[in-house]
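Supplementary Note 2. Why include the ligand at all?

Several targets in our set were suspected to adopt different conformations when bound, so apo predictions alone were not considered sufficient. For every target with a known small-molecule partner we therefore ran a joint prediction. The input for adenosine-5'-triphosphate is given below.
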Amino acid sequence: MVRTLAVANQKGGVGKTTTVVSVASNVALAGFRTLLIDLDPQGNATTGVGVNPREVSTSSYNVLVQQLPLSGARIQNVLPNMDLVPATLDLAGAEVELVPMFSRELRLRSAISLVENEYDYIFVDCPPSLGMLTINSLAAVNEVIVPLQCEYYALEGLGQLLTNVQLIQEGLNPDLQVSAIVLVMFDARTRLAEQVAQEVREHFGELVLTTVVPRSIRLSEAPSYGQPIEIYDPASAGAAAYRAVTNEILEATKKL
Amino acid sequence: MVRTLAVANQKGGVGKTTTVVSVASNVALAGFRTLLIDLDPQGNATTGVGVNPREVSTSSYNVLVQQLPLSGARIQNVLPNMDLVPATLDLAGAEVELVPMFSRELRLRSAISLVENEYDYIFVDCPPSLGMLTINSLAAVNEVIVPLQCEYYALEGLGQLLTNVQLIQEGLNPDLQVSAIVLVMFDARTRLAEQVAQEVREHFGELVLTTVVPRSIRLSEAPSYGQPIEIYDPASAGAAAYRAVTNEILEATKKL
Ligand SMILES: Nc1ncnc2c1ncn2[C@@H]1O[C@H](COP(=O)(O)OP(=O)(O)OP(=O)(O)O)[C@@H](O)[C@H]1O
Ligand SMILES: Nc1ncnc2c1ncn2[C@@H]1O[C@H](COP(=O)(O)OP(=O)(O)OP(=O)(O)O)[C@@H](O)[C@H]1O
Ligand SMILES: [Mg+2]
Ligand SMILES: [Mg+2]
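The joint prediction is reproduced in token form.
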């Protein structure tokens, strides 16, 4: 049974792409057949696994707006056991172009249903908004992973995100569950980070993974080499933390 | 002659709100009549000057979608010499609601034209996307300030932003100019930050402000007190850097 997971948070710069690239590549390296779908017009997840968005001919834009089958847009084996549906800049137009279209919220869901038996894990990277792209993504998956930066503005946005997840559950996708909140970019030098972490654990208990991802310079350097952290610097604190995050997510299969 | 400035960058979490709140409040504290317009559904700029978005009755949503005059939506004197047009969550719906509307890109521009003679500076905080809200903002102002986080993904997105600014110049607002690129969240401990800063200065020369804003914990703590850095901790490195940034922007009046 394939597991489908979106990594979403409308707050910008909170580690969505870093989390999805790190976890998806760890899952692939562990031997699971993995598909990574980049639904952010910035194409950062595409870059993060070593593909140049400017050199791509078909992408998630064609899948959503022109209903190209996923099998026609994916790049196979960007990493061992991992295929990628890349994003390109024209995806930015999809937020507007999809609005008047038939079944506009469910286009990704129907595209995934045609290929899901080929994979064990399907991940989707979302843009920093709650528009048509994130809605398509949340309507298409069973689980949402929420990376939460331990900062004040990020904490403020969490309520809005969970409200929107609930709207999607009621209107488009009753199977949708928040399966994990991951505390990221934790800077042990600040009181603020500790306060945010404590408040989130009090409110959300078990949903919050035990592992906390520290702020780690190597994590921000890895994308410039087009490599996930596990390949760029497996000895780094960032790599160790994301291995632990991945294990917690893999373990959760047993609870589902 | 009023100066109108949008702070924009579709990359998330790069310091747009921190920059606009810090600079707008410094400009107001220096005695200029200032209006801050929050066009991000997250409402972080609203929070950043001490107003709770959940307690607000009229907002930028009403101005854009229902054509309420700005004078009916603003909160006066949130700081000395500063008025605020707050943002609320329903603004997230505006990206979709505006699509079929008449003159959808120019609604903010016409709203500002009715009040601009009451101000010396008008600032707009943008969400992390290039949708209808950012387009409205870029069509309404004469200048764009681009905060650039000194990291790889942020650098990648700069080209896309500048292309979109050009499209707006050609199609909606010929007066629009990029007036400043501000290097922010600079972490002196990393080679990456230095490399990004160097590359940006080589490409964009004079556009890049001399001042570089360091990563400073006090900056991330200020929003939890609803205060701009100049009020929260004027002695901090972050406050000093944003005073220097503000001076460079004020000086630029002479060049315009
Ligand atoms: N734990 C970490 N330590 C240090 N840097 C990090 C960490 N996680 C992410 N980063 C860096 O912080 C920046 C923001 O992360 P990322 O781009 O993954 O966030 P995002 O939520 O995907 O952003 P967006 O909202 O624009 O899609 C990137 O430059 C990334 O390299
Ligand atoms: N120079 C800095 N040093 C340390 N922290 C900073 C600095 N500038 C901003 N921050 C913090 O980094 C986070 C991102 O900044 P901010 O929210 O201003 O970015 P943004 O571009 O407005 O994000 P969004 O794309 O979500 O609108 C915030 O938690 C903020 O407090
Ligand atoms: Mg991202
Ligand atoms: Mg912001």
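DSSP finds twelve helices and eight strands in chain A. Residues B 16-17, 40, 44 surround magnesium ion (ligand 4) (CB under 6 Å). Comparable summaries for the other entries are listed in the accompanying table.
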